[in-house]
Amino acid sequence: MNNKPLRQLQAYLQSKLKPAHYQSLAGIIGDMPRLLAINLACGFAVTFVLRGGGTLFQNVLFSMFIGFSAYSLIKLFKRLFWGAGTPNTIAFYLMCVMVAPLALIVGMFIAALAFNYPLPDISKFKWSYMGSFVTLTCIVSLIAAWSFWSRSKMAELQASAEAEKAKNAAIEKQAMQAQLQMLQAQIEPHMLFNTLANLQGLIALDPPRAQHMLAQLIVYLRNTLSSSRAEKTTLKQEFTLMQAYLELLAIRMGKRLQYTLDLPDDLQQTPIAPMLLQPLVENAIKHGLEPKMEGGSIHVVAEKQGSQLHLKVIDTGLGLPFNYDDNKNVSSAANNIGNANIRERLQALYGPLASLSLQANQPEGAIAHLSIPIN
Amino acid sequence: MTAKRALIAEDEPILALTLQKMLEKLWPELQLCAMVENGVQAVQEALDKQPDILFLDIKMPGKTGLEVAQELAEEWPDDKAFPLIVYVTAYDEYAIEAFEHSASDYVLKPVSVERLSKTVQRLHARLDDGVQRPNELDRVLEQLRHLVPGQALPGGNSTGNKATPERLRIIRAAVGNQIRMINVDDVLYFEATDKYINVITKEHSSLIRSSLRELLPQLDSSIFWQIHRSTVVNTLHIQIANKDDTGKISLKLKGSEDKLQVSRVYAHLFRQM
What we know:
The complex is a heterodimer of chains A (375) and B (273). Chain A has 375 residues and is an alpha+beta fold.
């Protein structure tokens, strides 16, 4: 119930402060309960264990001031010596021990000033116990430093674990999306029903060709289904799939479509993620060749240059839209949205060494060029 | 009674042949006067041969079946009866809904003999009933209003793209070695030619390499209206719409001598409110 104003404050601070400042402020606030507990414990210890005189209230008050001074001084010195970097462990503890007596004096003086104790009186009042006080402060300072240190270490570990988790989730999401697209592609009704309509016609007109077409449809469906479940497939399998797909379209489109596939023998077993090549071929058909009255040809080729695999889909179709801009991620054309998805997947799967570019083919059509590192 | 004549427009040869064979069985007297494989040929052949029935595939290169119907409605001679149209389409939920809604005749691919024979019966009935024919053009225009909602024609490049395309603000037109930057608000109208669109402003006219099908989804359809298959006008620049004695509407624009013809397909846009 009380969390609401707290969260509002948090959101407010987050919006007003720079992220780095907000982080350190959040860290300090997070340290507070622990610091207060330690200070309280010291107050009790001084009153009942060391029996340094003074009331419990006075001692707790002084402990608070000394504790806060130590905390601030350690923060300050850490900043001064190591900046934003991580300090050496031993040097850091050594620094804490050195800071302890200083914090003791500073804290006591501030407390004295704040509550109007005469300073000489204060020094007289506590001086005889100074030795044990310094020892106590040193020990407490060490314990506190260790405790805060491990807390920040824990937070760091937690943060890196969370980052790892987020990254995995992103990759998983990409894979899910790809699978979803795949499923949609499989059952794209227009493609399926048009193919079936052709089959229906061929059964009456030319049974042997109907057999051939059915065989292609079976290869296409089987490969699409199996590669939608696989994380990796081989170029050979992808090319088999493309061969069946293009053969189906060539039967449908008649003389309006010619195709060639070129996969060198030494690249047959090269692994590749599914649903990278297929959408490019489908785009070339859908946006380039199918809507073109004269039709044309499509050429799918794989080649290796050094440690890069190059896959090219070259068509002589209608070409890229008049306002196509390869550098723009979001664009008006429908196929560009598809390309943005492919780029995201490439990034997630292969990192910055992979790329997809679209350019005009001469004298007509488009070239889609996929470049992937092979390890 | 003379034998009825039909045209089949279908880009996939096996499907065209299959439809032909089925029709031969179901309607032996029907004469097939033309078989074409794209939308452009369909318009040419239909105007040339003037068949009684058109079987139009929806998704064809050149022009979609709906664009063919629209262009024929604009171009058809006044003294000739407009043909009956049967649309042929592969499964597409959106389109089927539209066809049902507009009460158009359509058959689905793969074509079933039963469905086609029902269609044939209906065509027979309507062709025998000669009185209905003069109204056929109005009927097709009314259907097209349902089938072609707003500006975007289904079956075009943008079909299946549910994402709203980015709106065009500036048009880049090449003029010699220079690129002219044209604010869309300054455009009076767009006029499509074969492969280009002429962009007309008060000062200039410039060509861009595009089609209306590509351009229309990027324009604000509340301001840019298609008024003819090749013309899109910026309504903010219209001064007045004139209706002549034959009922044809033409537009006069502010700051331009050009007169734009509104085709009968889009005449309903200029009825008074």
